[in-house]
Amino acid sequence: MIDRVKAAVLAVIRTLRPSGSLSSQTVKSAVWSVGINVGARGLQLIMMIVLARLLTPRDIGLMGLALVTYSALSRFSRLGISRALVQRPEANVDEYLDTTWMMQIARSVLIAAILFFSAPFAAGFFDEPAVEPILQAIALSPLITGFFNPSIVYFEKSLELHKKFVFDMSGAITKFVIAVVLAFILESVWAFVYGYLAADVAKLIASYALDDRRPGLSFDREQAWELFGYGKWVTATSAISFLLVSGDDWLIGWLMSTAVLGYYQMGYRLGKTPPLELSRSLSTVMFPMFSKLQTDSEALANAVNKTIRILSFVSFPAAAGIVLTAPSFVRAFLGPQWLPIIPVMQIVAVYGAFSALTSTFNEVWNATGHPDYNTKINFARLVVTGAVIYPATTAYGIVGTVSAIAGIYVLLIVPVKTHLAVKSIGGTHRRFIIELAYPVFASVAMGAALYFLRPALSGLPAIAEFACLVVAGVVVYVSAVAVVESLSTWKIRSDLEAVLGAVRS
Q1: CA distances in angstroms from 117 to 141, 269, 494, listed in the order given
Q2: Cβ proximity of 269 and 343 under 8 Å
C-alpha cells in the first residue's frame, strides 16, 4: 500500500515537473504555485480558527502589532534583489549569488538589531507593554531568513515551482503543527510566536536541501549597484505598499485597543484570502513568463488577457460568496465573540477581488522594465488614502477604515491601472470591459440566489447553513457560466481546456 502511494505521488511529480514549451512550463508552475498558496493558506486558516477558539482577540492583536512592526522594517529596507535577478534575461545568474547573499545577511542583521532595541519604544507607542518581549523574540526571524540560500531565486526564475512548493510548505506545515500544539498547552500568544520562528528554521534548512549551489563570502560592488538600479523601484514600491497595506493596522493599534486590532486583522485576513492568494499564485509564475515575453508584444498581450480571464473567473464569485456566507462562517467556525469581523470580511472580499485582478498589471510593468509605474500609482493612492482614513476611522471605527481603503482602490486606482495596462499591451478598453462583464454577470446571479436562499436556511445550525450556501453557490455559478458562455464569445472554457492540456503535456 505504501509503495503504491509513493509511486502515485512520484508519477504526479513527474507529470507536473515544469518542462516543455514556455506555455506548458508556465501552466505546470502555476499548478504548483496554486498548491503552495492553497496548502499554506489552508493550513493558516485552520490555524487561525483554532487560535481564535483558544485565544482572545487581544492575543491576536498583540501578534499583529509585533508583525506589523517587523513588516515596517522589512518593507522599508527591501532591496528588490530577487526581483532584479528574475527579471534579468540571462538564464544563469550564479555570478551574482555571493553578492546577493552578503547584501541579504547585512540587511537581516540590521533589521534584527533595530527590531530588538526599538521594542520598548514600539510598546510605548501602542501603549501595550506586552508587545515588547514578543517583538524581541520576533527579532530572531530576520536573522534566520537572512541566511537563506540565495539560489532559491531559481525556483521562480527557472519556473521550478515544484521546489518552491516544498520550500514554502515546509514552513507552513511546521508553523501549523508548532502553533496549534502549543496553543493547547500554553493558551497564549506565545504559541503563535514559536510557530512563526519554527517555520523560518524549517525554510532555512529546506533552502539548502533543495539546491546544491552554495554561496560564498565575496562581494562585488559593481554587481550590487547594478542590482540595486532595478531593485530601487521595488524598494520604493515595497515601502509605499507597507503604508497602504499595514498603515491601517498602525492607525487602529494607536487609536483603539489591541482587541479591536485583533478583530480587524482577523476579518481582513479571512475576507481577502481566496482572491488574493489566487493572484499571488499566478503572479509567482506570470512575472518570469512576462519577462520572457517582454520583446514579443502580441504574445505578451495574449498572455495578459488569458490571465485576466482566469483571475476574474475565480475572484469575482469568491468575493460574492464571502459577502453572502460571512455571517454563517463566523458563527460556525469562530464563535460569537468574533461577530464584529463580519462587515470587515465582506468589504475586504470585494476589494480583494479587484486587487487580485489588477495584480496582473503590476507584473506586466515589472517584467517590461517599468517597475516605477507601480511606485507612482501607489504613491498617489497613499496620499489620497492618508487624507481619508483618519476621519473615516474616528467616525465609523474599523468599518470606516476598511471602507476608505476599499473605496479609494476600487473607485480611483482600478480605473487608472486599467487604463495604463490597456495601453501597455496595445489593447482596448472595450475588450477589457466585455471580458469582465461575463464573470460579473455570473457572480451577480450566484449572489442573488444565495441572498434569497439564506433566509430559508436560518433555522439550521450555522455550519449546515454555511455548507448549503457554499454548495448552492457553486451549482448556480457553474450553471450561470455555462449559460453565459453559450450565448456569448467568452473563451473561458477553451482557456481552462488549454490549461489542462498543458498540464498533461
Answers
A1: 15, 29, 56
A2: no
Q: State how far the alpha carbon of 344 is from the alpha carbons of 263, 279, 351, 399, 401, in Å.
A: 9, 20, 11, 6, 9
H-helix or E-strand containing 336?
Answer: none
Contacts of 271 (CB under 8 A, 6+ apart): 322, 326, 344, 345, 346, 347, 348, 349, 352
Burial label, 147 (beta-carbon count in 10 A; 0-12, 13-18, 19+): middle
Query: Which tops the pLDDT comparison, 442 or 29?
Result: 442
In the structure, what pLDDT confidence band is assigned to residue 446 with cuts at 50, 70 and 90? very high
CA distances from 145 to 80, 92, 109, 142, 171 (A): 15, 23, 10, 5, 11
List Cβ neighbours of 318 (8 Å cut-off, separation of 6 or more).
Answer: 274, 275, 278, 349, 353
Distant-in-sequence, close-in-space partners of 320: CB < 8 Å, separation ≥ 6 = 349, 443, 444, 446, 447, 450, 473
Largest CA distance in the chain: 69
Distance in Å from the first CA to the final CA of the chain: 28
Q: Closest Cα partner for 437 from 378, 490, 382?
A: 490
pLDDT of residue 9: 41
Please state, in angstroms and as integers, the Cα–Cα distance from residue 15 to each residue in 32, 147, 281, 323, 500, following that order. 12, 32, 19, 37, 12
C-alpha cell at 441: 454577470
Total Cβ atoms within 10 A of residue 257? 16
Nearest partner of 197 among 275, 263, 119, 144, judged by Cα? 144
Asked whether residue 98 carries a pLDDT value surpassing 90, the answer given is: no
- 245, 401 contact by CB (below 8 A): no
- The verdict on pTM exceeding 0.70 is yes
Rounded to whole angstroms, what are the CA distances from 17 to 33, 280, 293? 12, 20, 21
* Residues 303 and 290 sit within 8 Å (Cβ to Cβ): yes
Give 4-60 pLDDT, tens digit per residue: 534 444 444 444 455 555 555 555 555 666 666 666 677 888 888 888 888 888 888
Residues 178-232 pLDDT 10s:
999 999 998 888 998 999 999 999 999 999 998 888 888 888 788 777 766 655 5
* Matching residue, cell 473607485: 411
